[in-house]
Design a protein that fits this description.
The protein has 298 residues and is of the alpha+beta class. It is built from nine helices and ten strands. The protein has a six-stranded mixed β-sheet with strand order 1-3-5-6-8-7. A two-stranded antiparallel sheet has the order 2-4. The relative contact order is 0.10. The N terminus is likely disordered.
Length: 298
Amino acid sequence: TTTMTTTKVTTTRRRSTPPSKASTPAKARPVGGPRPRLSPRGHHHRYHHSLVTTKASPLDGLFGDGAEENLPDAEGYIDGSLGGFTITKVSFGSIALYTGSALLAYGFGAYFDFLPGTDFSAVMLIYGFPASLIGFALKYAQLDPVACRSKPEAIALRGTKATDIQNQIREDVTRYRYGDEQHLDFALERILKMGRYGGVPRKFIPRLFAIREEVRDGEYALTLEFEHKDGFPGSDWDKFLEKATSFFGPGIQDVELKATERGAELTLISDGSGSGITGGQKGDVLPPLMPGLAPREQ
């Protein structure tokens, strides 16, 4: 009897509360409604730079092509620094620092019987201490690679349209370097006459923070994005454009200058003549043997 009564009450409650016709459904956003407002051009430009994901670990993306993750952003750029594994993509400072710190931590824990492996604690401490010191030194002298945003059609022109200097610039600034104050240090020293009469002092030299690969009228174009420091007037670039064209040549038809919110952009556009394309790779620039001599190459 109790079971039947409960069933009847439940049925009565369900019938007594039908869906109300007076209730208004939630408003859906119209298909043709106004689009969200975009931020100003300068902030919009910085937003797209943030789409280049920073690697959480120095080993991320080294052994895979990353084709599934390398999707274009809203402007059609992809991460141009991805590719096959090369030793230059490895941060030796991070590897040595993490390995040495782990050995030191475990060695101390095992030495004081907090962790197993008391017999090997001395070996861990012996190797962990110098490894951590080397890691600290390399991290201190390490120059991180800059972001590289590329158009897919520009990547296809690297081997046919890009000059040797353009390829070398891209490869040098997208790898870890040690001992350099900033990327393109030697090039900026020659172009901006750093430390010489009529030149720019070292403390005011612009800093390269990103590069882009594009196609201009069917030709390969490499854009260098600089951030100006306090005290560097943007008008100084105009005096050195001719010097930049001859320095990055041959095979460069023009160097375009464009002012940005953070500084300036220099775009190196190849001329498509094949000049400056040998397929060879120049060695790294070495210091001169004596003051006043020209720098050497490996």
